[in-house]
Amino acid sequence: MGRLKAISKYVVIGIVVVLIIVAAVAIYVMQRPSVGPTSVELTGDFEKDVVEVGKALEANGVSEVTYSVWSGGDPNSVMRVLGIVEAAHRINKIWSDNGVDVRIKVETRYERDPGAIYDEFLSKQPLGQAGDFFVNSYIYISTLAEEGYILDITDYAEKYSDLMDDFYPTILDAMKWRGRLYGLPQDTEARPLYFRKDVAACAGLDLTGLADKVKNGEFTWKDLYNWAKQVKDTGCADWGVIHRKGSAHPDLIQFIYAFGGRLYNPDTGKLVVDKEAIYKWLYVEWKMARDGLIPENMMEWDWGTQIHPTTVNGKTLVFIGGTWHWTEWQTKMYYTDPETGEPRGLKAEEVKNFFYYTLFPAGEPGKDPVTLSQPYAWMISSKAGIKNPNYDALKELYHELAFLILVKASDPDINAIHSIISAHLPVRKASAQLIADENWVNKLKNLEIDLSDDVKNQIKDIVEATVNPINTEFLSNVSYMLEYTHTTPIHPLYPKLAEIFKDAVDMVLRDEKDPAGAVQYIISSVNADPDLAAEVEIVGEIPGGWSYP
Amino acid sequence: MKIKSKGFFTRRTSEALIFILPALILIIIFYILPVVLSIYISFTPLKNWNLDRYLGEIVGFRNYEKFFYMLQHDPIIRNVFLTTIVFITITLAINVLGGLGLALATYFVSEKLSAPFRTLWLLPRMAPIAVYSLVWYYFFHGSEIGTLNSFLMHLGIIKEPISWGHDIIPWGPWSIIIFVNGLVGVSFGMIVFTSAISNIPKELVIAARVDGASNWQISRRIFIPLMKWHILYVTTWQLLSLLTTYAHIFLLVQWGLVSRQYGTTWSLYIYQVAFTGRTDQGLAAAAGVILVIVGGILGYITLRMLGFEKMITRPRGDI
Questions:
Q1: Which of A428, B28, B183, B310 shows the smallest number of beta carbons within 10 Å?
Q2: pLDDT: which is higher, A333 or B306
Q3: 3-state secondary structure of A177
Q4: Do the first three CATH levels of A46-189+375-467 and A193-372+485-539 match, i.e. the same topology?
Q5: Interface contact flag, A123 B50, Cβ < 8 Å
């Protein structure tokens, strides 16, 4: 018994000693002092900066740096993550050419729902488990910056003034929060109104010169009502207007601007509920739904089986969509082939033959047409590189490298490829020039361009389906819309307000509330939340005697 | 051998502690600690999961005040409570009575028939939540692609599709969430009650049969009185489960099948506040703590009403 007791004692002591040794080694490994430089002064000379960062990493015994990139959106926009993969590939090549023995490895995650990936980023970033790069809408910048979840890249970016100057200024401004830069533009878009040419012809509506009339404010939502009614009355289509739902609220927010309203007061930094513009917007929705021109249950329509099939199969005159739908309709099987009865994607020629596009018309005479952009941003997590060796000591180096990856991912060709295959608009002037270069577009069509094999393989099918003169012509034709673009406010509470708007639209479409009641609902909902109430100004009045159409 | 009897740690209590220690550790880690943490978080301004910044800051009852203010002024939150009450009351009745009915019904038919029948009722519980919810999403869909609408239109009963989860307010969305959750919960009661019935001595049933008792009389006079404990267990368990369940409802609301206004229950509301949009974990924790208190009170009332105390009293030995 005594012997057993002694053995037990030694076993326990042995375990404790082993644990202490393991803990000491772990602490040493985690906090071992750096032997090389822990940061590099960026100069703006990209290759030089990359080589210096690589050498510094090498001197610190780092041979591989792993980053992960998270993003989401439509399937054709996968370059949002592959752009980072390609950038890493190009930096690896520079290192290889300069004898630097360090490699970057990129793990990608691309989801259909950008909102869901944002929610996940928010909950995992504080734990250091989120993506090192986060590519998502600029609307999240304010919250992420305020919480310190993304890197302030202002100082780095100042060294790369040539690149910054090449971005379109309004889009670069959208990447800023309280005057500091938190991301680089990845893409942007316009939200055209798509008119079905065959439906218009059937109803005797002439589309000739309509884009100019819309641009000049000669064709407004009042005229659009009459067109939609004519289509419905003649039985040429089931619906006059179809729009998106749920999280797609930016499409509908265009109404506020089209009726001359505003959403943000730059002087006070507060959100604005503009009663007059919102009332008119909701009135249009309510009236159209009552007259059977918009489905009452529009906000619960299914994307894959209702919204897009209704549009591409010609059951509506108008679809309020985005530029990216132009290629989405070519790669997703929303269309039912009239001969075989089988679903398939539209051919580029068919998209061109079916659809005419204009700006979002002015709400009423005297107002201006609009479009709305929600640029995507390349953002860097403030914990970028955390999974790599000796993070605490080499944090600055990992951050600098992450920034350099963003610089590379902003290469004109990477941005141009993304724009063409996803029908988003370029964010740089150099990318726009490349898109206009027929020779380069042909090379892209045959994938005879300088891209890593990995990226080539992943975009092969999308390139095959989307790269053609028709799509590049479309991008050129819609570029002018950016001159009319608005953005939604960069305010941490804007998503909450937008959610209330979404509920109000649903209510008027279903006739649960009339437009005035829905405006009152929005105001009550804002006032019911003390945080929101403190950040929202309610302006204007419901116009008396306003009629629509 | 002398038995130590000093203080709390007698040999008897020490032995008992060793036996219950594994379970106690699990309960502390997975039940007590989360509750304590939730209570703590409810007194902090925690939002956007920024633990480093907000977890050390105490704001007193601000989250509770905000919650009650919103309850008074926000029509959506008022509807959340109404929905929760209706949802729990009706679904609980379906779960308990449905489970009991199924267990009794399958007892009186041959095993050949009852086994597959019972398995069928287990399908909703066995199916992955997303798949199961998707089935009902397409079944109740408010357009012609919905199975129910398509069927009724085919029969000529309706001419236009009905948006079940939105048009018939509030009973449309309520009916859908009650139906979908009710089917899942019924199987739980069915299993417990079937097991209980199978443990009742057959002699009692045979004797009743000899006396000419019908199935109904056997159920009412023999089975139900002998299953009181099980009924109590299923009722209390299901009540607390329904108070906190949100997975199926979340998907149905998220996919737009049912109106958010009348499809959101209290637990789903907590989830939405904590995890979506501008996440406010402090407020969500306050709403969660109140839910725990309400759950505790309801659980206590149920146990009292169904005579739990009487059932756990030691037999007096004079039976």
A1: B310
A2: A333
A3: strand
A4: yes
A5: no
Q: Could B277 and A499 be called an inter-chain contact, meaning their C-beta atoms sit closer than 8 Å?
A: yes
Domain residue spans in chain B? Answer: 74-276
> What's the CATH superfamily of A193-372+485-539?
Periplasmic binding protein-like II (3.40.190.10)
Indicate whether A242 pLDDT > 70. yes
Residue of A113, A125, A299, A529 best to disrupt the B interface, most CBs of B under 10 A: A529
A528 touches chain B (CB under 8 A): yes
Tell me if B166 and A521 make a contact (CB, 8 A cut-off): no
Q: Which single residue is written with the structure tokens 């910056």?
A: A145
Q: Mapping DSSP to helix (H, G, I), strand (E, B) and coil, where does residue A485 land?
A: strand
Q: How far apart are CA B165 and CA B136, in angstroms?
A: 11
SS (H, E, C) A312-327: HCCCEEEEECCCCHHH
Residues 32-51 of B with CB under 8 A from A: 48-51
Q: What is the dihedral of CA B143, B145, B149, B153, to 10 degrees?
A: 100
Residues in chain A with CB shorter than 8 Å from the CB of B69 are: 528, 530
Tell me the torsion sign for CA atoms A393, A397, A400, A401. negative
CB B74 to CB A529 under 8 A?
A: yes
Contact A527 B277 (CB under 8 A): no
pLDDT tens-digit series, residues A438-491: 899 999 999 999 999 999 999 999 999 889 889 989 988 998 898 898 988 888
Task: Give the CATH H-level superfamily of domain A46-189+375-467.
Answer: Periplasmic binding protein-like II (3.40.190.10)
pLDDT digits (tens, 9 = 90+) for A364-391: 999 999 999 989 999 999 999 999 989 9
pLDDT of residue B1: 46
Q: What is the mean pLDDT of chain B?
A: 88
Q: pLDDT tens digits, residue range B239-290? A: 999 999 899 999 999 888 898 889 999 999 999 899 887 789 999 999 999 9
The alpha-carbon gap from B278 to the nearest alpha carbon of chain A, in Å, equals: 7
**May I ask the CATH architecture of the domain B74-276?**
Orthogonal Bundle (1.10)
Does the CB of B216 have a partner CB in chain A at under 8 Å? no
Indicate whether A262 pLDDT > 90: yes
Q: Are A253 and A497 in contact (CB under 8 A)?
A: no
- The alpha carbon torsion through A403, A409, A411, A414 (nearest 10 deg) reads -170
With a cut of 0.85, is the ipTM above it? no
DSSP state of A248: G
Instruction: Give the model confidence (pLDDT) of A247-257 as tens digits.
Output: 557 889 999 99
Give the sign of the dihedral formed by CA A169, CA A497, CA A308, CA B272: positive
Q: How far is CA B251 from CA A41, B87, B128, B131, B132, in A?
A: 50, 16, 12, 10, 10
**What are the domain boundaries of chain A?**
46-189+375-467, 193-372+485-539
Percent of chain A with pLDDT over 70: 95
Give chain A positions within 8 Å (CB) of B257: 300
Please state the pTM of the whole predicted model.
0.77
- For residue A49, give the nearest of A155, A159, A154 by alpha carbon: A159
Report yes or no: A120 at the B interface, CB cutoff 8 Å.
no
pLDDT for the residue B3: 47
Which residue carries 């649960």 as its tokens?
A512
Say yes or no: A249 contacts chain B, CB-CB below 8 A.
Answer: no
User: Using alpha carbons only, what angle is made at residue A228 by residues A222 and A232, rounded to the nearest 5 degrees?
Assistant: 145
- Report how far residue B162's alpha carbon sits from residue B168's, in angstroms, rounded to the nearest whole number: 9
